[in-house]
């Protein structure tokens, strides 16, 4: 029987469903993340107000929460949305941007972790710090290698019963037991702000479009970024032209090309 969980097949399913994803992201990421989602074939809605975030999570296919530009009002909306997603049986993804930087962020992430995210996606410095290690992260930017975060990712996944994705030069995804690496992308990617935040939203779209396969959904979303990133990077002159080329590459990526070009290996 054909494997329904290859990245290409999951991309086909995701586009066919065009899942509504509630993206509680940050002021920096909102526009690029929505454009990335639309280019890839998902349906994003940036809804974060405390007054409506919980209600909206119940009608969304998935929820993503990113603490990049946190404030107390937004945090209240995040907590309501995560509780509502849990009650409705919807997957939700946590992006713990620079959670190590301030006491406010550390406390917020601890509260969000208690609500048991389905998937955590962060850069290496964020994942190392989240597992209690000493990271070299500076603000929102990683200064650690993905390889150094792999043990932390496994630990976190075991502890919280979730999928953990670490992104960087070569990405790493684990459920605490099995793990995969996804190679590809472009050195221009960390030079364009909020692509990681956008990827978190896309992970939500793939999680919404799959049933009980958050590990495969995460690998597929990361593979889409890796292949489209490689294609855009090959033609780009710098981060500016990379940015628009990346949106075009996401939109024109076919499931067949994705399965052919994706460099996914068992870790
Ligand atoms: N040097 C690199 N080479 C290839 N791909 C990269 C590189 N650095 C990051 N990427 C890719 O860029 C995407 C975003 O990951 P990254 O780890 O930069 O997120 P992030 O640090 O959370 O970003 P941000 O906080 O700006 O949103 C992923 O698809 C990742 O594989
Ligand atoms: C630059 C920046 N500052 C807060 S969030 C964000 C987007 C990248 O994480
Ligand atoms: Mg980030």
Automatic annotation (TrEMBL):
Record carries keyword Transmembrane helix: no
Keyword Acetylation found: no
Reactions catalysed according to its record: 5-(2-hydroxyethyl)-4-methylthiazole + ATP = 4-methyl-5-(2-phosphooxyethyl)-thiazole + ADP + H(+)
Binding-site positions, substrate: 46, 194
Metabolic or biological pathway, per its Swiss-Prot or TrEMBL entry: Cofactor biosynthesis; thiamine diphosphate biosynthesis; 4-methyl-5-(2-phosphoethyl)-thiazole from 5-(2-hydroxyethyl)-4-methylthiazole: step 1/1
Required cofactor names: Mg(2+)
GO molecular function, one term: hydroxyethylthiazole kinase activity
Signal peptide (residue range): none
Documented EC number(s): 2.7.1.50
GO BP field: thiamine biosynthetic process; thiamine diphosphate biosynthetic process
Keyword line: ATP-binding, Kinase, Magnesium, Metal-binding, Nucleotide-binding, Thiamine biosynthesis, Transferase
Family: Belongs to the Thz kinase family.
Protein name: Hydroxyethylthiazole kinase
Native organism: Rhizobium hainanense
Gene from which the chain derives: thiM
């Amino acid at each position: 029987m054909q494997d329904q969980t290859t990245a290409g097949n999951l991309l086909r399913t995701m586009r066919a469903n065009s899942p509504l994803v509630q993206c509680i992201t940050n002021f920096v990421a909102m526009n690029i993340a929505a454009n990335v989602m639309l280019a890839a074939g998902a349906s994003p809605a940036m809804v974060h107000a405390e007054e409506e975030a919980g209600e909206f999570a119940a009608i969304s296919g998935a929820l993503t929460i990113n603490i990049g530009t946190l404030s107390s009002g937004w945090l209240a909306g995040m907590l309501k949305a995560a509780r509502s997603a849990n009650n409705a049986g919807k997957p939700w993804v946590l992006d713990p941007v620079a959670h190590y930087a301030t006491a406010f962020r550390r406390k917020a992430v601890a509260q969000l972790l208690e609500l048991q995210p389905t998937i955590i996606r962060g850069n290496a410095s964020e994942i190392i710090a989240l597992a209690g290690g000493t990271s070299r992260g500076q603000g929102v930017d990683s200064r650690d290698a993905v390889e150094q975060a792999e043990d932390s990712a496994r630990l976190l996944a075991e502890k919280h019963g979730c999928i953990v994705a670490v992104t960087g030069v070569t990405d790493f995804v684990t459920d605490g037991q099995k793990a995969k690496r996804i190679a590809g992308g472009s050195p221009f990617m960390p030079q364009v702000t909020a692509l990681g935040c956008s990827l978190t939203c896309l992970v939500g779209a793939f999680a919404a479009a799959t049933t009980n396969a958050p590990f495969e959904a995460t690998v597929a979303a990361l593979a889409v970024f890796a292949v489209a990133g490689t294609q855009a990077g090959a033609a780009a002159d710098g981060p500016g032209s990379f940015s628009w080329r990346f949106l075009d590459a996401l939109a024109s990526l076919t499931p067949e090309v994705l399965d052919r070009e994706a460099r996914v290996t068992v870790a």
